[in-house]
Amino acid sequence: MSIQQSSNLNSYQDKFTLGKAQKFIYPSYSIKFNFPGELFKRYSSMRGERLIIKRQNSKLLQLDNRRQEIKKEQYIKTYGVKEYRKNFISPDLYNLGEEPQKTKLSTFDYLNQFERIKYDGFDEYGEIKTKMEKINEDDENDLVLSWLKQSKMERLSSTDQRYILYTQGKKEWEERQENNKKKKRRKKEKEKSEGKSLGDIDNEIINDLNNPYKYIQEINEKEFHTYTGAFALFDTLVRNKILSVFGYPGGAILPIYDELFFWEKKKFIKHYLVRHEQAATHAADGYSRSTGKVGVCFATSGPGATNLVTGIATAYMDSIPMIIITGQVGSQFLGTDAFQEIDIYGITLSLVKHSYVITEPRFLAQTLTEAIYVSQNGRPGPVLIDIPKNVGLEKIKKFQPFNEITIHKALGWRYKMKTQTEKIYMALYRLSGSSRPLLYVGGGVISSNATAELTEFASRYQIPVTTTLMGKGAFNEEENLSLGMLGMHGTAYANYAIGNCDLLIAVGARFDDRVTGKLQDFACKAYIIHIDVDDSEIGKNKTIGLGITGDVKMILTEFLLIMNRPEYLWYRKPLTSMFKDWASQVATWKKQFPLVSSPSDDLLLPQEVIKRVTDIEPDAIITTDVGQHQMWAAQYMKCKPRNWLSSSGLGTMGFGLPAAIGAAVAHPKKQIICISGDSSFQMNLQELGTISKYNLPIKIIIINNHWQGMVRQWQETFYEQRYSHSSMLEGEPKFDVLSAAYGIKSLYSERHSEILNKLTDTLASKETVLLECNVLEKENCYPMVEPSKANTEMFLTRNLSTTADGLIINKDAKDKKRDKNKNKLSDLEQIQLEYIKIKEQYEEVILEKNNLTPNQEEHMISLIKRVKEEELKEDIRLEEEKKRT
Questions:
Q1: Does 72 score more than 90 pLDDT?
Q2: Torsion of Cα atoms, 284 then 289 then 290 then 292, to 10°
Q3: Which residue has the higher pLDDT, 81 or 686?
Q4: What is the pLDDT of residues 539-595, one digit of tens each?
Q5: Catalytic residue among 22, 340, 585, 686
Q6: Mean pLDDT of all residues in 528-544
Q7: Which of 118, 175, 188, 339 is catalytic?
Q8: Distances (CA, A) of 705 to 3, 679, 742
Q9: Nearest to residue 779, comparing CAs of 574, 629, 592, 575?
Q10: DSSP characters over 284-335
Q11: Which residue has the higher pLDDT, 324 or 101?
Q12: Could you say which of 69, 259, 277, 453 is catalytic?
């Protein structure tokens, strides 16, 4: 028997100790698990709470491990994976069937939803490929050695077959040892001749192992400021597949822009120059919303950094993954009130998910990769990195690159979540006892890419679905189950469904005040189940019955897997039949309260423009600003996932145009449409220069009513038509002249009869087009829920409103009735006034003459009689009204 055969035999033996198994799975971690079932339960990773894991601090051991990994790769290339598994991996180690049931790491999974990560040096689960240690021949547990000792090998004759096998194996082993020694000698001689040090070789191994973009090594290093802080920044961005950034240069960030010059020259990364720093954040935001990837923006210190604050807050409120990189004065000037020094770290502390200030260039690569990981995992959000000017210039002695695969090794932790199986069973139990369930869906479904799971879950039991402004596109709005948007300007049938359901399942939503209205009356008849990745949102605004924390996609998948089990098949038919009455009630509300716009001859209505857009381009990416046009677009447009980009939480005017720039950069072959109001458009109109420079084929549609539309509507409804500074007519630019100044084609429409042709010409063009739609000025956005009122109490039009019981009240009829009552009382009031005047005159006569003439007495008596008659009539009328009511 050869030594190789003995190694194979030993690897299959039963005495494979727990310590060796743990060392094989986690070579650089010291963790104790209940092996093996509990190991794989905890080894699986999903976005959620952090699990802190100790990391290996020895750099020498890390380098040694990497050398071993290279050797293992060479072995696999030479002999194949099967031989490697046969000789180095014991099937008894897993003891879980044919294949180990490991779950792929969640690190950046949703960037490659349908592709497993495969890089040299790492397995498909993101773990460093490790090689089992060689088995010591002197090991007391070696079966071959113990068998030879027991048989007294030294006393065997040279013709014994067992002795021959042993000697052959020993010779083979000695030959291999000798060959390995020769290879090492040749390698050392070669290193000496080439003048390479051991450190240089280590760096080559690390760079080759950790670099998925190996073509970067082909760059002539003389063309770069190699291994400076700025180099580490762009090297890390490219390794993490971030190839587009937005920004505006300035003094403190010039070292980074100087390095950018070389990287753009080699076409590794593309920078888009905006005309204002706020637009850079909105463009990165739009890029992230439309792709699910991280958006990146640059700005300098001082005013450049403070101009980013609105955009950072917009991304934070809507949970958008984004990296903000700001320049800062040199480290030596910090705290001295130097020119353009500002504490952007402190200013944005409450507006970001995490913040960093880089003090040394050697930390930049790891920090940036960590920031990308943090911004995407758990609940997404913006992350700020502040880089002093000198950090970008200083050189790094030992540059170590990082990427999305290896960062969790460097951090020593990763996002995990606890299993929620018991709570899922409780939710299914509540569903089985419900007769009027409703799904309330927010932006969390879009963030976790769970639209397919949501659709299957809703369709299986025919549960109606209503979405928030952020959740628009999470569910197909053409389906019968879709109720559209709920809340202040949501559909009437969605608000009635919320008020009458008995089970509300909130998925990736946060119970915002514009959604709930009067909180006490929101879903007051329902048991509430809240599913969200952020544990702090569970029960924050509204008291709930059951909270499930975790990634929405994972939890909905678990729901579907449990419901597919044979023991739960009996749920399906009874639940579907139970929900039929509820479905018919919802359908009745849809017919009773449709979204309609009242025709106004040939005048152009804003609703008509927006409906025509979605009819012509149903697959376009839509960006909006904030105001009436935003609500009309949310009501009438039908969007697909990640095709709806709108500032929902913060309500940022001026968001739409730069967000369209980010979407156009991310999707150069898609139709991008920006719907804006005349007021919002003027907030960031300078970005027409960016669009013109990069020839981005964005279609801009301005809904022009010459007002701050939503402000005017509130002043009309709640402030007795006192229109204080909400008119934009005076000083409004001519948009056709403005677009021509930037070299952009423009069109104009103000008639219902011509809007279809104008929209068709606009959307068919392959270049940038601005279409100004001059619409009816005082058109209001309905339905509308008054603040502090329940969602079921809505204004349907200026004249029609609803009550909490579903009754419709006509304001005009009510006013006419009140006017009629006033007319009925006018006779009594007039006679009473006449009586008072005459009485005052006759009192003066009595004082002067002590008596009245007969005619005066008769006149006075007749007035008193008429007063009494009118009072009697009024009493009778009031009694009749009481009886009727």
A1: no
A2: 100
A3: 686
A4: 999 999 999 999 999 999 999 988 888 766 655 555 666 788 898 999 999 998 998
A5: 340
A6: 93
A7: 339
A8: 87, 9, 23
A9: 629
A10: HHHHHHHHSS-EEEEE-STHHHHTTHHHHHHHHHTT--EEEEEEE--GGGTT
A11: 324
A12: 277
Distance CA 618, CA 609 (A): 14
* Main-chain phi, psi angles of 415, to 5 degrees: -75, 130
DSSP 742: T
Token pair, residue 400, equals 């170590």
Return the residue matching tokens 């339960």: 41
Q: What is the percentage of the chain residues whose pLDDT exceeds 90?
A: 52
Cα end-to-end distance, the chain, whole Å: 106
- Sign for the pseudo-dihedral over CA of 363, 364, 370, 375: positive
Active site residue 389: yes
Q: What is the pLDDT of residues 595-605, one digit of tens each?
A: 888 777 788 99
In this structure, the number of other CB atoms found within 10 A of the CB of residue 595 comes to 16
Strands 413-416 and 49-52: antiparallel
Strand order in the sheet with 784-785: 784-785, 794-795, 800-802, 808-810
Burial 676-686 (b: 16+ CB within 10 A, else e): bbbbbbbbbbe
Active site residue 630: no
**CB neighbours of 615 closer than 8 A, spacing ≥ 6?**
none
User: Do 330 and 393 contact (CB within 8 A), yes or no?
Assistant: no
Long-range contacts of 599-605 (CB under 8 A, 24+ apart): 599/752, 600/776, 601/752, 602/751, 602/752, 602/753, 603/750, 603/751, 603/752, 603/775, 603/776, 604/749, 604/750, 604/751, 604/752, 604/755, 604/773, 604/774, 604/775, 604/776, 605/752, 605/775, 605/776, 605/779
CA distance 460 to 177: 64
From CA 459, how far away is CA 389, in angstroms rounded? 56
Q: Which of 710, 728, 784, 794 is catalytic?
A: 710
Q: Each residue of 8-55: pLDDT tens digit?
A: 444 434 333 434 433 333 333 333 333 333 433 333 333 333 333 333
Cα 393 from chain centre: 35
Active site residue 710: yes
99 is catalytic: no
- Give residue 876's pLDDT: 78
Cis preceding-peptide flag for 641 (omega within 30 of 0): no
Helix ranges, 501-579 (H): 513-516, 552-563, 572-578
SS3 percent helix, strand, coil of the chain, rounded to 5, is 50, 15, 40
Which position among 72, 131, 353, 389 bears the catalytic label? Answer: 389
Average pLDDT of the chain to the nearest whole number: 79
Is the dihedral angle over the CA atoms 466, 472, 473, 476 positive or is it negative? positive
Answer yes or no: is pLDDT of 671 > 60. Answer: yes
Is residue 339 annotated as part of the catalytic site, yes or no?
yes
Write out the H or E segment, with its range, that includes residue 546. Answer: strand 546-549
Please state, in angstroms and rounded to a whole number, the distance separating the CA atoms of residues 409 and 29.
10
Task: Count CB-CB contacts under 10 A for residue 841.
Answer: 12
